[in-house]
Amino acid sequence: MTQEHEITAPKTKAKKASPMIEIKDLRKTFGANNEVLKGVNLTVNKGEDLVILGRSGSGKSVTIKCIVGLIEPDHGEIKVFDENVLHLSKEKLNEIRVRIGFLFQSGALYDSMSVRENLSFTLKKHQRDLHESEIENQVMEALESVGLGDAIDKMPSELSGGMKKRIGLARTLILKPEIILYDEPTTGLDTITSREISELILDIKHKRKTTSIIITHDMACAKLTADRIMVLKEGVIHAEGTYEELEKSEDEWVRSFFE
C-alpha cells in the first residue's frame, strides 16, 4: 500500500511595506563652508508622525525642503512612495508633489486673495476639469475640517496668526495629500493656539490616515503629535526614540530639550 502524504504550499514571508519616506546620506552645504547636512538618514513609515527636533540652523527645515525639491541637496538619496525623487523628470516629480502637502511657517497665503480664492486657486491649478460648484464644495469642506468655514470671505490681513496657520493647513488638505510636511506649525503662536494646532495635526492624522514629518522646537507639540522623535545635531541624526525614551536619555544634550 502506498501512503498518502498531504501536500502543503511552502510558507512565504509577508513582504514588508516600504517606508513612505526614506532618506540616505543626505548632505547640503551653503556657500563656501556652511555644511548644514552632513549625512542625514531617516525613514518614515505609513501612518506615522515623525517629529524632528534640533537647534536653530541645524538643518531641520532644509531636510524637508529637499524632499519636495525646494532645495537641491549636494548628495544622497530621497525616496518618496518608493521613488527616488532626485532622479525623476519634472513631470513625474510634480505628480509626486501633488501627493505631498507642505505647511510653511507663515502659512504662505496670497495677501491679495480672499480665503476662498487662496484655496480655489490651489485646486484649479492641479485639477483643471472641476466645475465651479465642485470647487466651492471642496473649499468649504477643507475650511470646515480646520474649523474655519465662516472665514471663507475674509482677507489674510483680517486673520490672526493661528487662523492663518489653519487656513494654510486647509489649503494643504484640499488636495488630499498622503504625506504632510509641517515646518514649525506652532511658531509665533500663544500656548492655547499652539495646542489647538497640535490637536488639529493629530486629528488630521486619525481622520485622513496621513503620514507626516513635523519640524518643531515646541516640546508640547512634539509630545502630543510624535509617534517617534529624531534629534538633529551638527548635521546628522544624533538620537532617536519616543518622547518618553528621549526625555530619560543619558545624553545630557538630548535631555536639555525636555527641561
UniProtKB/TrEMBL annotation:
Signal sequence, start to end: none
SUPFAM superfamilies, alphabetized: P-loop containing nucleoside triphosphate hydrolases
Coiled coil residues, start to end: none
PROSITE patterns: ABC_TRANSPORTER_1, ABC_TRANSPORTER_2
Alphabetized InterPro entries for the sequence: AAA+_ATPase, ABC_transporter-like_ATP-bd, ABC_transporter-like_CS, P-loop_NTPase
SMART domains, per database record: AAA
Pfam families (alphabetical): ABC_tran
Keywords for this protein: ATP-binding, Nucleotide-binding, Transport
Residue ranges of every copy of the ABC transporter domain listed in the record: 21-259
Protein's recorded name: ATP-binding cassette domain-containing protein
Organism: Flavobacterium geliluteum
